[in-house]
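Got a spare moment? Tell me how you read both lines of this record:
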Amino acid sequence: MSFTNILNKRNRALLRELVVTDFKLRYQGSVLGYLWSLLKPLFLFSILYVVFGKVLKFGSGIPHFSIYLLLGIVLWGFFAEATGQGLTAIVGRGDLIRKINFPKYVIVISGTVSALINLLLNLLVVLVFMFINHVDIHRSILLFPLLIVELYVLALAAAFFLSAAYVKFRDIGYIWEVGMQAAFYATPVIYSIDMVVKQNVVAAKAIMLNPMAQIIQDSRYTLITHQTITMYGFVHNRLLLAVPFVAIVLAVLLAVTYFRKSSKYFAEDV
């Protein structure tokens, strides 16, 4: 899976075709069509904001908590969508794999690119809400694209591993679904890390070692409010600060190696 092959003109054309096809099939027969990619996170945000923001007062003391919550939901939604697409990517394209000889990783990348496009559309909605709520824009916003790259790499690594594992072990689908539900509540998406700090500082630091927690908190810091707790302001051990990034690098190496070895047998197993 070399960088040269990824840039190959034929592979780029195939990738583009798969992304377009995925978008067409996903919203085929729907009245609202592509608008659902924007409405889904907004519906979820509305419910969670009323329950956790207004009733349970999870966001008390956090400036612009509604945007704070929406951004967390949008970023988590991308990770869930990209990995979910990746999980069934190879099995779902079994007929294509058996008929045509092409790099199998293109199928996985197409699903994550499709999810990435949805993410960018949803981020436009976040920016609109930021403007309406008069959120101050800081120079730190220039770091946000780097966090999106980090998020995409993490999601892509998970997608590669899951797509290859699902070919042989269909139980992976159920395990991942349960794991994602647990991870959602173990990541500060609907609550602020400040609440955990008040209860248990060690638990809060453990949560922040999760790459998704680090990405979401850093994104909130760069876009919304500098009152957001981040790894750099909360964890002072240099080795611990490196944990989320080392975890992503290891995930990429593991995923690429496993996918490479497994891809030889996809045509036989799907």
In short: Residues 3-269 form one domain. The chain has one domain: 3-269.
